[in-house]
């Protein structure tokens, strides 16, 4: 039987229950853990309460921490002078309590020239060294440096050329008027 050295690390990081053994991992990979492999869903933790491996949505499993985070994001939204950014913060606050991040992600990428970069969600999978599917929460708040950002303006004229050469099909290249630098 092949040993799975990453199993210990994945259990220690909380990606999987400490009682999960190599046989259980093989069952997970085959989807035998429950409906449609629910224990492998990125936004689901695993219960250690019962003998069966039961998937629990993050917003349920971590509610005691997510509720104060959601409240803090709403308070920050009330302080923002940028209506679109405030909307994003309120949407992210909702997402923390539902695990539905898509709409708040779209709100984020739709922001124009935000002063802050807020990363606040379970996106990263690097703590799951075993299967690379379980996400972990991360948080970061970055403040844009306007002076340094202006130095990037020199690259704006090359964005269309970069995108054109990086696309596999010409129809996927947006019109030049729709192109802006992603880091601004």
DSSP helix fraction:
40-55%
Supply the CATH class of the largest domain. Alpha Beta
CATH topology of the largest domain: Fructose-1,6-Bisphosphatase, Chain A, domain 1
If you compute it from the alpha carbons, what radius of gyration comes out, rounded to the nearest whole angstrom?
21 Å
Strand content range: 5-15%
Biggest sheet: strands side by side, in what order? 1-2
Shape call: globular
The number of distinct structural domains comes to 3
End-to-end distance: 51 Å
Describe this structure in words.
The chain has 184 residues and is α+β, with helices and mostly antiparallel strands. It folds into three domains: 5-61, no CATH class; 63-144, 2-Layer Sandwich (Fructose-1,6-Bisphosphatase, Chain A, domain 1), CATH 3.30.540.30; 149-178, no CATH class. It contains eight helices and four strands; from the N terminus they run H-H-E-E-H-H-H-H-E-E-H-H. Strand 1 (44-47) and strand 2 (54-57) form a beta hairpin. The longest helix has 17 residues, at 63-79. The protein is globular. The protein starts with a helix and ends in an 18-residue tail after the last helix. The mean pLDDT is 76.
Brief summary of the model shown:
With 184 residues, the protein is α+β, with helices and mostly antiparallel strands.
Keywords:
single chain; alpha+beta; Fructose-1,6-Bisphosphatase, Chain A, domain 1; 3 domains; two-stranded antiparallel ribbon; 4 strands; 40% helix; 14% strand; globular
Topology:
Blueprint (H helix, E strand, L loop, with lengths): L4 H8 L9 H9 L13 E4 L6 E4 H4 L1 H17 L3 H14 L5 H8 L6 E9 L11 E8 L2 H6 L7 H8 L18
Antiparallel strand pairs: 1-2, 3-4
């Amino acid at each position: 039987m092949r040993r799975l050295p990453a199993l210990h690390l994945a259990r220690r990081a909380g990606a999987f229950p400490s009682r999960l053994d190599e046989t259980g991992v093989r069952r997970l990979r085959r989807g035998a853990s429950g409906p449609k492999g629910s224990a492998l869903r990125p936004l689901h933790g695993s219960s250690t309460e019962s003998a069966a491996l039961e998937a629990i949505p993050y917003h349920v499993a971590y509610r005691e921490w997510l509720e104060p985070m959601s409240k803090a994001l709403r308070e920050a939204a009330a302080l923002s002078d940028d209506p679109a950014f405030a909307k994003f913060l309120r949407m992210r606050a909702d997402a923390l309590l539902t695990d539905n991040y898509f709409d708040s992600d779209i709100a984020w990428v739709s922001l124009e020239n935000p002063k802050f970069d807020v990363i606040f969600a379970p996106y990263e999978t690097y703590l799951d060294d075993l299967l690379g599917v379980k996400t972990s929460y991360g948080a970061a708040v970055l403040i844009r440096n306007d002076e340094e950002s202006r130095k990037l303006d020199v690259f704006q004229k090359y964005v269309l050329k970069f995108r054109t050469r990086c696309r596999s099909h010409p129809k996927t290249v947006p019109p030049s008027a729709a192109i802006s630098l992603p880091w601004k």
